[in-house]
Design brief:
α3 crosses α6 and α5 packs across α6. β1 and β2 form a beta hairpin. The N and C termini lie far apart (90 Å). Helix content is 44%, strand content 18%. By secondary structure, the chain is α+β, with helices and mostly antiparallel strands. Strands 2-1-5-4-3 form a 5-stranded antiparallel beta sheet, with helices on both faces. One of its GO terms (biological process) is retrograde vesicle-mediated transport, Golgi to endoplasmic reticulum. Belongs to the adaptor complexes small subunit family.
Amino acid sequence: MGKHGHVAESNMDAAFPEPSLYTIKAIAILDNDGERIVAKYFDETFPTAKEQRAFEKNLFNKTHRANAEIIMLEGITCVYRSNVDLFFYVMGSSNENELILASVLNCLYDSVSQMLRKNVEKRALMDNLDGVFLAVDEIVDGGIILEADPNAVVQRVALRTEDVPLTEQTVAQVRKLIKDTAPGWLKKGTVREGNGQ
C-alpha cells in the first residue's frame, strides 16, 4: 500500500495493455494457392501492399497443411478456417482474445456461407465478390467489430445491394440483374429477337 492507502500498481498490471475497441488488424480470404481474393487491413502493421502480400504468403505456407485453428505469426494472432479451396483469416494483436477473433471469423464464414447458399468455394465467391466485401464492411469497420451475427450481416448486405441505383452498381451486379430478369422478358415478349427492336 502507498502512503495514501492506495495499492501501488504492480508489474502485473503494467503488463496488460489498455483495452481497446480496435481489436481486428486484418481480414483475408485466400485461395488454395495462397493468392489473395479478399483482404482488408485496418492498421499500419503492414503498411504496403508488398508487405501485406508477403505476410499473407507466409501465413498461408504455415497454415494450409496445418490442422489447427490458430497461429501466432510475426507478433500477430491469426485464427483461420478452410473450406474446399478457400482459407478465411482474421488477425489481431499478439495479446488479443482468441475467442473474440474466432467469433469474427465464424461470423465472416457463416455470412459468406449463407450468401453463397452453403456453396463456399472460390468460383461462387468470385461471382458474389461485391457482397463479400459488403459483408466484411458490415462485420468490421476500421478494426472495430460492428456485428457478430451472420444473419444480421446477410440481411444488411441484401438491403444494401437492393438499394443501389443502376448507375452505381458493379458490373457483376448488373450482369446478375440481366441474367435474372432476361428470361422473364423473353417469355413475356417485351424484347423482340431478330432486328434489334
